Amino acid sequence: MKKRLGAALIVAMVSLLSACGTKSAPAPSAETGQKGTGAGAAETAGTETAGAEADGTKGADGEIHAPLQETPDLLLRLSEDQSIDYPTTMGCLRFADLVYERTNGRIKVEVYDSGTLGNTTAVIEQLQYGAIDLCRCGVGDLSQFSPRLSLFTLPFLFTNTENYYKCMDSDLAQEILEMADAEGLIGMCYYTNGSRSFYSSKPLTGLGDLKGQVVRTQESALMMGLMDALGADPTPVAYAEVYSALQTGVVDAAENSVASYASTAHYEVAPNLMLDCHVYEPDLLIMSQQIWDELSSEDQEILRQAAQESVVYEREIYEAYEAGALKKVVDAGVVVTELTPEKQQEFMDATASMAEAFCGDYIQDVETLRRMQD
């Protein structure tokens, strides 16, 4: 069913996302993202509320805290490649607020947004030897350091947003978050970045339309395998170059979350969006193991709890942001295709063998996550 959506249908399409999210090219700062501001270190303590002031007041967590010391004993740098107003950045800022308040100003986390501290892979490598303290990054970037995380990029692993949250909050997901197979890194929490769907400069109404289209993909064996399974022609392109690649016809299509599709203005050069929701891909907040080991057990618990509490806030921010993004592209005239159950099943059938082929070492994890959604 293909339709040009009017404002009256936006609510219905937002519900669907929960059930499945020539001009100069804008400069997106990240794989999932918003155009960067280059703002550098964002404000931390007191970002969401007045914060815990010097005389002891109610903080972001609603609790009364002791007076904050004037100069922190420990300053931590957190790298975020999204812009200041993107949901994951807002989640990081909430984390920073909570840490600052609950340590009474002893520990301060400075959030460097818009990729100020470097590209994601380089930042992760710096975390491994303690040059940078924390980073928010996509599971695709992390899977080369912690291969077990790659299972979260399997197509159609999660059936809808509710089941995605249920699985990410499970004991299994929290065990995977420990990243025992990663050297020098420790996972703190999962943030959401919605679901990924295809968009194209050409008509896009179902699996048949993807066949033969040149689709920009990440440099990931699993994502390249996904394109092959769907009959598309995968072509790696740096994310910052996707807008111009779509504009000039180097690629016909790409795939990402609705929020990213809107924030990077890809809808201007690829005005056909198909809500297939093929991957629900989490982002992670991670920390340098070296820096973590230097903290007291009390401070470790404060950081761990602050990270987990920021997850609820980030999810709320993301869902509102995604709804606004969908409205934005609809108002711009994007042709949005809602897949029927039969057409959705065609995608699932085409990719059914990928779990064994790409995540055979973790097939028990995959099966456990699927059983959680029965």
Describe the SSE topology.
Layout lengths: L1 E3 L5 H10 L20 E3 L31 E7 L6 H16 L4 E7 L6 H9 L5 E5 H4 L18 H8 L2 H7 L7 E7 L3 E6 L6 H4 L3 E4 L3 H9 L3 E4 L5 H7 L4 E5 H6 L8 E9 L2 E6 H5 L3 H35 L3 E4 L2 H10 L3 H6 L3 H10 L2
Parallel strand pairs: 3-4, 3-5, 8-9, 11-13
Antiparallel strand pairs: 1-13, 2-4, 5-12, 6-12, 7-10, 7-11
Helix pairs in contact: 1-12, 2-12
Low-pLDDT windows of residues: 1-14, 21-30, 32-39, 45-54
Q: Which strand order does the major sheet show?
A: 2-4-3-5-12-6
Q: List how many beta strands DSSP finds.
A: 13
Supply the helix-strand structural class. alpha/beta
Integer-rounded radius of gyration: 21 Å
Shape: globular
Question: Which percent band covers the strand fraction?
Answer: 15-25%
What is the ordering of alpha helices and beta strands? Answer: EHEEHEHEHHHEEHEHEHEHEEHHEHHH
Q: What percent of the residues sit in helical stretches (DSSP H or I)?
A: 25-40%
Distance between the termini: 27 Å
Average of per-residue pLDDT values: 86
